[in-house]
Amino acid sequence: ISIEKQQFEQNINTYILNHLTEDLSIDRIADAAFLNRSYLMHLFRDETGYTIGKYVTEKRLYLANHAIEQGVSVTDACYQSGFRNYTTFYQAYRNKYHKSPKQARK
pTM of the predicted model, to two decimals? Predict the structure, then answer.
């Protein structure tokens, strides 16, 4: 990997992490990176092995799980971590952790 490519990946990753709890669309990330949406998605997947959507979901789940472990209510953790829909959060959480978010509080 070239130094420019590493810096580029770091900039995208930093942008995603800094805006994780906001409405973070691929178009918004592409605009911030001054790239075409399709090219950004292709480049990101080639370099990380993740789609942007999957990467964002994984980071949000980690954030929500940490909040739940710290005693934040499941609903608050869902929305504070950037999810806009509880059902989407719940299904993603179960798929990743193989238990419901409420079971994680126990």
Answer: 0.89
What tokens does 54 get? 């999957």
DSSP sequence for the chain? --HHHHHHHHHHHHHHHHTTTS---HHHHHHHHT--HHHHHHHHHHHHSS-HHHHHHHHHHHHHHHHHHTT--HHHHHHHTT-S-HHHHHHHHHHHHSS-HHHHT-
Residue written as tokens 């798929």?
Answer: 95
Among the listed residues 69, 62, 71, the one whose alpha carbon sits nearest the alpha carbon of residue 92: 62
- pLDDT (tens digit per residue) in 85-97: 999 999 999 999 9
